[in-house]
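Posting here for the record, re: magnesium ion.
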Amino acid sequence: MDIFSIDELRKTFTNGDMKEEILKGINLTLKEGEITALVGPSGSGKSTLLTIAAGLQPASDGKVLFNDINITSMTSEQVRDIRAKQFGFVFQFAHLVPFLTVWEQLSLMLDVSEVKINNEKREQEIDYILDRVGLSNRKHAYPSSLSGGEKQRVAIARAVIHKPKVLFADEPTASLDTKKSKEIMSLIQDLTKTLNITTLMVTHDEEMLSYVDHVVRMSDGRVV
Ligand SMILES: Nc1ncnc2c1ncn2[C@@H]1O[C@H](COP(=O)(O)OP(=O)(O)OP(=O)(O)O)[C@@H](O)[C@H]1O
Ligand SMILES: [Mg+2]
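Prediction output follows.
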C-alpha cells in the first residue's frame, strides 16, 4: 500500500526579482514499512523535498498525499497536528534540549504529540524505546554527558516514541564516523521494520544504501 505519495511537486524560491525553480515536478511513492533514501549532489533539492513532504514548508504546486489526504491543501493547524502525531524527525545533529535528561526529552515528545497515557504506561514506553536504542543505562543522563552516537540514538528514540507512521531523516549519519553510522542505520532499519514505520531519509553516504529498501536519485530538482 502507498501510505505516502508525492505528485508533480514543484517549489520555486524568489530572491528579489529572481525566481528559481528548485523542485521541477517530483513524483514519488513510499511503501508502508519501507525505507526510501534520497541521494544526489548538494543543492539538488533533497532537503527541500523532505521538508515539504513533512509539511514543514509549503509547496508551490503539486500534491503530497498522506493516507490519500493532500497535506499541501490543509491549514497550518491541521498540518501541525499531523506532524506532531503521525510524523517523526531526525536531523544531522541530535538537537537535544541541553537542560533535560534523556527521560525528560522522550516524555516531552509524548506530551507534544498528545499521546494519552498514564504514568505507569509512560514509564513502560520510555523504558521500551530506550532498551531498543541501547540506552537503558543513560535514562537520567543530560546530553552533555553523551557521546555523538548516543545523542543521535536519543534523537531516534524521540523521533519514534509516539509511534509515528512516517519518519523523516535528513542526513541522520552525517555527523558520525562509519562504524557509528552503520549502527545508526541498522537501528533505523530495525525500528522501521518492527514498528512498521515508513521512512524517507536523505543521505550523502553510498555505504548507507545497503540498509534501505529503495533508492531515489535526484539531480537539479528532478528524480533521475
Ligand atoms: N528558503 C530558501 N530560499 C531560497 N533558496 C533556497 C531555500 N532553501 C533552499 N534553497 C535553495 O534550493 C536549492 C536546494 O537546496 P536543498 O537544501 O534542498 O539541497 P540539498 O540537496 O539538500 O543539498 P545538501 O546535500 O547540500 O544538503 C539550493 O540551491 C538552495 O540554495
Ligand atoms: Mg540537504
